[in-house]
Amino acid sequence: MSGIFSRGQFGTRQLLRVVPIAVIAYLLIDISLMLQPTFGPVGFWPATALLAGMLLCLPRKCQCLAWLMLVPSVLLAYGFWYHNAATAMANTAVDLSGVFVVWFLLARVWQLEHLRTHKAITKILVASLAASASTALAGLLIHIWPHAPLRTATEVLLRQWLGYSTLLPVCLLWFTALRKYIQHDRRHPHTHPIKDAQFVRTPWPILLLVLAETLAIGLGGPGAIAFPIPALLLCAYAYQQRTTAWLTLVAAMGVMAADSQEWGLILSNQGSILDQISLQIGLQLMVATPLLASGSLAARNDLVLALNQALDHDDLTHALARQAFIRGATEYLHQSPAAPRGNGVVMMDIDHFKTLNDSHGHAAGDKILREFARAVHDAIRPDDLFGRLGGEEFGLILPDTPPEDCLQVAERLRHRIESIRLYHNSDEPLQITVSVGVVHDRQMPEASFSALLATADQAMYLAKRNGRNQVKHLTPGQMRDLSPAPTL
Fold first, then answer.
1. Distances from the Cα of 360 to the Cαs of 368, 372, 415, 423, 425, in angstroms?
2. What is this structure's pTM?
3. CB atoms near residue 212 (< 10 Å)
4. Measuring CA to CA, how many Å separate 253 from each of 39, 46, 223, 286, 447?
5. 10 Å Cβ neighbour count for 445?
6. pLDDT tens profile 240-274
7. Using CA atoms in the order 401, 404, 408, 411, what is the torsion angle rounded to 10 degrees?
8. Contact 123, 112 (CB under 8 A)
9. Closest C-alpha to 287, from 135, 172, 170
């Protein structure tokens, strides 16, 4: 994930980031050792997957230092648990060999840009398998399992693979969502990104998953492992990718715990090694199927959003296209319940744009439009709608904004545009100004958006007739003279 990793030198800030890893690593080993009887041999080993996830989520400049903190911490945890230095060193080497392989593949070889494709999920699954094979091979080479080493190595391989496959997507998706939230909060501290609203509105996939798990535990039998798969696929379709990853993890842990405690399913604890391998592979498929489907659906949704973005936005200024602006503004103005403080409608026209365009060329005109739009984008709120209505005319919707604040926003925009200086094939800067017309829907309670926009347009032309580079709004008398309101 190249956005996560960046170059840099060790320092106090990097040290503060990685010091908690030592404590977390110690606790993870202890917790995993305590949980091992709960999930039995068919269960998974969460410590290594979580350690790898932490390393992958750290900036690249912190990762080498994190390894230096990680090794003694894991060694210490095993030492306190087994009270034997040789056993502790052997277990540390076995665990960290797998962590290194998955970290090296995902951070150095593939460097995943994001997880919103089935190819990215496939790489995680393949890296997880490679890490698990490395752990099993290291255990055989060190002779850490004196009794039935091949059988134990096979169990460890499958157990580790399941742990990496279930926990790594959760760690990486959670970190990606957290990073986006922090970046959004820094840019827009008074707003919050949209949560997974479908999780609240559509509880049926979760209820079906609970029912499927209950049937699997209650009925048991060879087919029980497949019961949750349709419900998990439905979750992949209905929810965001990180929600699906969490539900997949919970479902897999439920099946493992049920099998270990002999609540149903195939009793692999009493079965042969082939029974255990079969159940482990079934669990792996149950985990991989919804994760791959969720990645494919996320990629498709991103493509649809990108196409809609291209269709709904002006390519030059990145403002909303006329039809998209009108559609969005109409939804704002007719939403229920209505905005308590009403909504402002603003029309803006760049002064003398045609003269500037003819005098300095179309390249200069495009530069003026881009700089104007950038200044407006930087000044407005995330919920405000900004659209290009044609040529040098632009519209702005200020939702839930009182009339006096609309005028203040318009005046700030006018002043911001006036301060722009552009250089184009000349030492003399180009200065642009804008004429602005403002109307508020409380002034025209029953008016359509078309009428409001036309009234703001009339106010804008009043600003042009009075000398340009100013903000105008129509008085009640002037608005009566417009009756019936013109339409655009």
1. 11, 17, 23, 11, 9
2. 0.69
3. 20
4. 8, 11, 18, 11, 58
5. 8
6. 899 999 999 999 988 887 776 666 655 444 557 78
7. 110
8. yes
9. 170
